[in-house]
Amino acid sequence: MTITSKTPLSKRFTLPDSAPIERVVLHPIAMPLVEALVTSFGGDALRPGILVELHLAGAEGLEPAVGWGECVAGWTPGYSYETIGTAMHVLSDFFIPAVLGKTNLNDLHHFRGHPMARMAIESAYWAAVAQQQGVTLGDLFGQANRKQRALVGVSIGIQPSIDATLAVVEKRLREGYGRIKLKIKQGWNIEMLRAVRQAYPRISMMADANSAFSLDDIALFKQMDDLNLLMIEQPLDHDDIYQHSKLQPQLHTPICLDESIRNVDDARMAIEIGAGKIINLKPGRVGGLTESLKLHAYCYEAGVPLWIGGMLETGVGRSAQLALASLPGVTLPSDISATDRYYNPDLTHEVYVLNREDSTITVPTGVGLGVNINAQRLKEAEASFQEVAKSQFLGPVEV
Ligand code: OSB
Ligand code: MG
Q1: Which atom, in ligand 1's list, is nearest to the CA of 258?
Q2: How far apart are CA 56 and CA 101, in angstroms?
């Protein structure tokens, strides 16, 4: 099939059948963050995750192959309703049994929701197919004009004081990050943003509210309009699009939607009703790479500015994010920072470094996901998860 911009999105991004899916292993992990990222809904120093290890059988002329994916659900239903416990349940009791022995993921369509669990297994499958075919994950996307370097920025959590914020901003600018995102919440917003803008009149800066405000806060957003922010991310409810359409026309600053956008249709509706002007694409939030490619295609064709959001991924999830960030419709800096901003050491042997001269990270060029798992670190991270599971109720997390 020849794919053009007229081909319906639903027909464009399906992979041809693969060799059978032979085995899928779940690795629940807990990883100590170099620094916790405090948002309006909290922030943990120990990040949970699930690595999905998916094995494809060998086939005519093809060696068996393994692909890895990452689930970005948290300990609690904070950012999203999913948790590590719900993801373990849905993956082990429904998603994995539905795909074992199959040559595609079509049977996942029988299940609704659980995008983070879905992304974990779906991206492992994409990575395994890329591995088996001897191409990079980005190549497998089949999109022309991909970039070799992804433009990136850094996300700064809520700090104990304005001075502490200014110190972190200074450190990040010195490291070479060309776009600074500042988390805001009720009681921690305009004063802090003004102080940063005053100290750095020309930097590219933005605010992320993680749904902490309502339309009653309109006066506050109007004050932010004077600060030349690149965008304000998700000011209103996590499941709202309509009220954002009431806010955006009253502001000059573009609104970027994160939590509210669950799929390409949400993005289209949000843009069409004027609920925002920019989309943050997190593959875990939209349920996988296939939906991510649809969302990218919509934004690219409609000229809607797009960037890749982050969920403090390990090297596994980060590699998939970078493959997405190489797409030509990703036009704004993504929340993908260098490895040393998150984990030391990471779970992968490879580390990602910031190219200081242009605030980019080089997109992986290795076959498949382009990274290799550090087995020792994975073991430690699994043991660390089991420690937490002993002392806290997490739901059905046994593997
Ligand atoms: O809203 O973008 C968010 C992390 C956890 C939950 C929500 C968000 C974030 C980030 C992380 O901002 C950015 C990153 O991974 O560098
Ligand atoms: Mg956000």
Answers
A1: 1
A2: 9
> Could you tell me the distance, in angstroms and rounded to a whole number, from the CA of residue 209 to the centre of ligand 1?
11
Q: How far, in whole angstroms, is CA 24 from its chain's centroid?
A: 22
| Tokens matching residue 85 | 């416990």
Cα 327-333-335 angle, rounded to 5 deg:
95
The stretch 243-248 carries a mean pLDDT of: 98
Amino acid making up residue 303: G
CA distance 167 to 51: 34
Based on the number of CB atoms within 10 Å of its own CB, is 228 exposed (0-12), middle (13-18) or buried (19 or more)?
Answer: middle
CA of 257 to the centre of ligand 2 (A): 8
What is the enclosing helix (H) or strand (E) of 27? strand 21-32
Query: Which residue's CA is the closest to the ligand 1 atom numbered 8?
Result: 311
Residue 105: phi and psi, rounded to 5, are -105, 20
Can you give the pLDDT at residue 14? Answer: 84
What integer pLDDT is reported at residue 68 of this predicted model?
Answer: 98
CA 265 – CA 180 distance, rounded (Å): 29
Q: Are 257 and 243 in contact, with CB atoms under 8 Å apart? A: no
185 is catalytic: no
Handedness of CA 229, 234, 240, 241 (dihedral sign): positive
State the pLDDT at residue 3. 62
User: What's the chain's average pLDDT?
Assistant: 96
pTM over 0.85: yes
Tokens of 60: 């005519």
Is 390 catalytic? The answer is: no
Tell me which residue has its CA closest to atom 4 in ligand 1. Answer: 311
SS3 149: strand
- 317 C-alpha vs ligand 1 centroid, how far in Å? 13
